[in-house]
Amino acid sequence: MQAVASAILMFSVLFPAKTWFSPDQPITVEVRADQPVMLMLLDFLGKPLEPRQPAQFPAGQTTVNLRDHWQQLQVPGTYLLLAVPQGAAPAQFLGTPLVIQVREDKRRDAPPGPMVIKVEPLSYAVISTDHGEMTVMFYYDVAPNTVANFISLAQGGYYDGLSFHRIVPGFVIQGGDPRGDGTGGPGYHIEAEFSNREHREGVLSMARQGDPIERQGVMPRPEAANSAGSQFFICLDYARTRQLDGRYTAFGKVVQGFEVSQEIAKTPIADPETGRPQTPQIIRAVRILPVTRDNNPYAQMLNLSPVATTSPAATASPAATTSPAATASPAGP
User: Who contacts 217 (Cβ-Cβ below 8 Å, separation ≥6)?
Assistant: First the structure.
């Protein structure tokens, strides 16, 4: 409880009893508010889900079993829990929302239904470079393990001081390699989480090894598909990155500061074959921050803000290949 509470920060009002719950355990959240509040559960696209009984609570401290209010939490999916002042709109939520992932077992012949429930604060990333900052929201719904991996690495300072070592103008900028030459990683691999999220401008996706059989139009074999680790790329132009759809793990999107990616992509290239820039493009820091009402990169996607962002990346809808030598597609562990 202590670690979870500190991660959400002192100004929040929602404190889960723990991060992981089994399917038959109460999903217990402590509500600490200085005014009467109402809890709201949304799907990951912002649609409110009706409770079986009102989730309204007085000021003070209340322990709540979310199962008593939402039968939807028995169904695998990704949900957001908000604490809202009674009578206020969802956009006026207090503190930091919680992401609730009801996960199913996707192994062959696994029993249907939930396998485990993960509860954590809704977070976003800020990538700092010499050209400015990029604000990134995460696709918790389609790439939960990849998001968790990126957050863990970033919180440990892994990306700080590394570079965008590969730049292909009009295609991608790629970084996150401790060796800086496209061959490095964190010392482990993560499984692919391919989805229907399109590789639109500003989308972050995981680099991996290419598989020669992809040149025939087939999907990569597991050894290539599951070879990602820490290297990621940012898409620049969907006309060229469309070929990556369904073949690489899209896990987030730049919603503010996309022009920073475009500036990095203008860097003169020293080696066109590898994309190595003449001047190193350093990732100064990657910070993971909690979402608040005043700092909410998910506002447009969740329809929680009347003011639409004007960043080029934000206007492209999130949705939902081969070897680098063949099509210059991102690759690497």
Answer: none
